Amino acid sequence: MIADRLFRTIHTIEKFIKQSELLLGASKIISEAIKNGNKLLFCGNGGSASQAQHFAAEFVVRYSKNRAPLPAISITSDTSVLTAGANDFGFESIFERQIEALGNKNDVLIAISTSGKSKNVNRAVKKAHEKKMKIIYLCGEKLPGPHRLCDVIINVPSRYSAVIQEIHEIIGHILVELVEKELNYE
Q1: Domain that holds residue 161
Q2: What is the tally of structural domains in the chain?
Q3: Does the predicted TM-score (pTM) go above 0.90?
């Protein structure tokens, strides 16, 4: 069982390598935004929420090298905003409201959903599009509902949530590494 489980992830990584150029496109969008004084906003639910927080921390604090902090916010973290928004406007609006309040033209939304069906994530994508933000969507093998609104979709070729999240973790680390290189933090 253990070997089978590990091979499932390895096999997915091997398939994903064929679309790794998407990471270059995403890193260029992120780097350009940061160079131009814009910020990154991350959202997701459950495990994807924790990844949103993790990735924002890698940009703000550091990944592997000491460097200047980079502007990134996980909009999954503020329990007062999340619970007030869910109570007053519904759970589907918790990220959309924050995008409306915090997002600016040419900021980057990095939306994370293993299924691509998360209503609150997809509504955040729509609001980000309205605000003329750049949108990078990390998902599983199925395209997210608002895929036509996204600048880059990085879809992991798997239907297993755990495997998708494992690959998303790798993707997040690679993106930070690429951005650090593009911003000359080598």
Answers
A1: 2-182
A2: 1
A3: yes
